[in-house]
Design goal:
mainly alpha, Four Helix Bundle (Hemerythrin (Met), subunit A), Arc Repressor Mutant, subunit A, 2 domains, globular
Length: about 220
């Protein structure tokens, strides 16, 4: 992670850890320490401890003891619950965005998609996962739904490390449904936009469940050792 500068520190520390989770710098079951994070970020332990405390409260991190903070391994049940919520809420965001988007906003989304295509072609998986999240969350911004975006950001933080593992498998067609969604927005077709977003989210389901099974097997093997 990059070192951070001057105050205000609390939100910056939270945001830096969040970015590390979303871009695959931190993976499920990684062990973290307050001191180690503080050294990486170039800050004292206090703002890091506060950020970690908030993230454990938000179920983004898991504190097993005062010296053992982990990136959680999602259970299958938790993943499926988050999947259902995302299908509903991100589908709504896509629908509303298709109804309200300006031409400038659509062009901005296209530039974001082009940038993500370039990251994928160069196998820059961290940039690709970050760009994927930006694309998804941009829709709730375009839809004018800040409360919805806040909810989705929390879900994405929980999902980020798992999505990074999914990108490691180099799945094909990662931006296919995004392109379909943009086309629906250009046509002012909210139903098609919702369907494209829901298809995008659902397309990774089988691979995500496989990832979870493998990660949880590693987790329990490590605990037994």
């Amino acid at each position: 992670m990059q070192s951070i500068g001057q105050t205000p520190l609390g939100q910056q520390v939270y945001d830096r850890i969040a970015k590390a989770l979303l871009t695959g710098q931190m993976r499920p079951n990684d062990k973290l320490t307050i001191r180690g994070l503080a050294e990486q970020l170039g800050v004292s332990s206090t703002p890091v401890r506060d950020a970690v405390k908030q993230m454990t409260h938000d179920e983004v991190l898991e504190m097993r003891s005062s010296k053992d903070v982990r990136v959680p391994v999602l259970t299958e049940r938790s993943y499926l619950e988050i999947l259902d919520i995302r299908l509903s809420l991100e589908g709504l965001a896509a629908e509303r965005a298709a109804e309200q988007a300006t031409q400038t906003q659509i062009r901005d989304l296209q530039r974001l998609l082009d940038r993500n295509d370039k990251a994928l072609s160069r196998r820059h998986w961290g940039l690709a996962t970050e760009g994927n999240q930006e694309f998804h969350l941009a829709l709730s911004t375009i839809a004018g739904m800040p409360h919805l975006q806040k909810i989705l950001r929390g879900l994405w933080l929980q999902m980020g490390p798992l999505i990074a593992c999914y990108y490691d498998t180099e799945p094909a067609g990662l931006n296919l449904h995004h392109a379909q969604l943009l086309d629906a927005m250009l046509r002012r077709d909210p139903d098609a936009a919702r369907q494209a977003m829901q298809a995008d989210i659902a397309s990774a389901k089988a691979a995500m469940l496989t990832q979870i099974a493998q990660l949880r097997a590693q987790h329990f093997d490590g605990a037994a050792a």
